[in-house]
Specification:
- The radius of gyration is 21 Å and the shape is globular.
- Helix 10 packs antiparallel against helix 11.
- The protein is α/β, with parallel strands linked by helices.
- The strands form four sheets. Strands 6-5-14-15-16-13-17 form a seven-stranded mixed β-sheet, sandwiched between helices. It has a six-stranded mixed β-sheet with strand order 8-2-1-12-19-18. It has a three-stranded antiparallel β-sheet with strand order 3-7-4.
- A hairpin with a 2-residue loop joins strand 15 and strand 16.
- Helices cover 37% and strands 28% of the residues.
Length: 381
């Protein structure tokens, strides 16, 4: 694709920013349009798995991200008392790819990505409200009254993407009937827990936590609801997890309730078409998954890598076709597997819970390694 064309990205989240960095480094001119008035270090934590860190390493960001985050060498599923059910040792992948999984504050990561941009302009307070095709490309209209003409548009505007709504108005958002709380708190974990992710599975709920910086812990909790997420209140979190390990109870108590984010878990029903004409979707706008595999942002970062390589090697139409062909199978597998894991983690029948836990205990490490091998392997372009 000609480097004289400007590429416009809608959304300054992890996927949009990483795509801009990758395109910049290949000599493209990029603009980002973000609906927020300010880019602030808000949000909770995020785990950058080995596949994402391989991309960030290619972009020269590995060291700075490791400096501001916390490396993770194992991922564990436990019972509510933190008794181990399943352990994934990540040291094999650390050696193979010379990268580690990193847990970091989402706001910090976003700021590091913004600081990496050199020529890209980020236009804040630009909420996209309409797209119209014209003879030269597309007319983008924003809520602040501004209009711009664009020839190449990348929709990185999340699950409720306005760009996707324009391209594919019949796309379907699926609701998992699970509510999730996320928090970050100052807390000193025991030494043996500082470089691992632990997720405790109970009955119709679970709780995960990981250190993201010195004495700073990111945690998340979720519960299944029958009719409405309002069945559960953040003010009763202590009660919901009162039978869990004391560390989990301490993490909840040490977090100010007003700083806990509450959201319903949803994903995007898989679709095999991510582009049309000069507009293409990336990240959650294309393949939003429930967060049960910790791969949402990681898959967006993979999109950034693959799409930037494709745009560098092909004209836009061929680039989008190749990008879609390379990314759809893996992204959809993540979406489907994550949805299934979410249901299994929230079982309510005691007999099924016992069977689930037995299967987790008996699953050989070689099988866990094989599954993660597929996730951590990047596409060849």
């Amino acid at each position: 694709m000609s480097k004289n064309q400007t590429i416009d990205i809608i959304g300054a989240g992890i996927g949009g920013l990483t795509t801009a960095i990758a395109l910049e480094q290949k000599g493209f001119t990029v603009r980002i349009f973000e609906q927020a008035e300010h880019i602030k270090p808000v949000g909770a934590g995020i785990i950058l798995a080995n596949n994402a860190m391989q991309v960030l390493k290619k972009l020269g960001l590995k060291n700075v991200i490791e400096q501001h985050g916390n490396t993770i060498s194992s991922m564990n599923i436990t019972k509510s008392n933190l008794k181990l059910l399943s352990k994934i040792d990540l040291s094999y992948f650390e050696r193979k790819h010379n990268t580690k999984n990193v847990a970091i504050h989402r706001g910090k990561l976003q700021q590091l990505l913004v600081n990496t941009l050199k020529t890209t302009t980020i236009f804040l307070n630009h909420r996209l409200i309409a797209i119209a095709k014209n003879d030269e490309g597309f007319d983008l209209e924003f809520q602040n009254g501004e209009r711009i003409n664009s020839t190449i548009v990348l929709g990185a505007d999340g699950l409720n993407s306005r760009v996707r709504q324009y391209l594919f108005p019949k796309s379907n958002i699926r609701h998992a009937n699970q509510i999730c709380w996320r928090g970050v708190t100052d807390y000193e974990l025991p030494i043996q827990l500082r470089n691992e992710l632990n997720e405790a599975w109970g009955k119709k709920e679970r709780f995960g936590f990981v250190q993201i910086a010195a004495n700073k812990v990111y945690w998340y909790a979720s519960k299944s609801f029958k009719n409405n997420p309002s069945e559960f209140s953040v003010d009763r979190l202590d009660d919901y997890f009162s039978k869990y390990d004391f560390i989990i109870k301490d993490l909840i108590k040490s977090t100010k309730k007003e700083h806990i984010n509450t959201a319903e878990l949803s994903d995007l029903e898989p679709t095999h078409l991510w582009f049309k004409d000069g507009i293409c979707l990336i990240g959650d706008a294309a393949h939003a998954a429930t967060p049960n595999m910790g791969q949402g942002a990681c898959q967006a970062i993979e999109d950034a890598y693959v799409l930037s390589e494709c745009l560098d090697q092909y004209e836009s139409a061929s680039a989008f076709i190749t990008y879609q062909k390379l990314r759809v199978p893996k992204a959809h597998k993540i979406v489907k597997t994550s949805w299934t894991v979410g249901k299994i983690a929230h079982l309510s029948n005691p007999l099924l819970i016992g069977l689930r836990n037995q299967i987790l205990r008996c699953t050989p490490s070689s099988m866990n390694r094989k599954q993660n091998e597929e996730i951590f392997t990047l596409a060849e372009i």
